Amino acid sequence: MTSVAWNATLILIYLLFNCSTTTSHKDFRSSIGKVYGESTPDDKKEIIELNRLMVDAIIEEDMERLLPYIHPKLGIWVDLKSEWTKEQFVKDLKNPEGYINVYFLSTEKLRKKKNSMTANSVKDILLKSNGFYLDLYFDEGECELDIKFRSAKNYENDLIHPVFKKMNNKWYIYRLL
Question: The CATH number of the domain where 69 resides is what?
């Protein structure tokens, strides 16, 4: 077999094993379920778009695109116990072994860190979901999402509910998934 044919065979094998088993997040279907509290159609639309941006940033491993949507004074909650300033978030993103890169983006690193073969990064949990329904809870300039997966429902409780805050007529991400 020539080297060109061998290389083509290796590429084909790689594509078969790595592309056929992963659902493309661009095929995700995100549907609005119930909406609680008072909101405008624009508010609902902006929240859905911010959530989509957050999901895309996680799956595409491009968390820097979230920076314009983190309020400089409010900061961001990265989990239920950890509130960070925007500067702390930026600093952590630069660390390949930082919280965001491990817990959100790399199942392999997370499993090693936790010494658990069942741990999954937020990215992989989202990929397993095959899309989701969103219930929106609006309350005085704030919106919390309850995410219901289309499949892999046993992973729903592994994520926290994202929260968005409206400041000066602009919505910001206040708590990540």
Answer: 3.10.450
Q: At residue 69, does pLDDT exceed 90?
A: yes
Which residue range forms the structural domain that includes residue 121? Answer: 31-175
Asked whether residue 78 carries a pLDDT value surpassing 60, the answer given is yes
| Count of domains observed in the chain | 1
In a domain, 8, yes or no: no
Q: What is the secondary structure of 45-94 as a DSSP string?
A: HHHHHHHHHHHHHHHTT-GGGGGGGS-TTT-EEEETTEEE-HHHHHHHHT
In a domain, 135, yes or no: yes
| pTM, entire model | 0.82
Q: Is 162 exposed, middle or buried (0-12, 13-18, 19+ CB in 10 A)?
A: buried
Assign 25 a pLDDT band (cuts: 50, 70, 90): low
Q: First and final CA of the chain: distance in angstroms?
A: 49
The reply to whether 1 falls in a domain is no
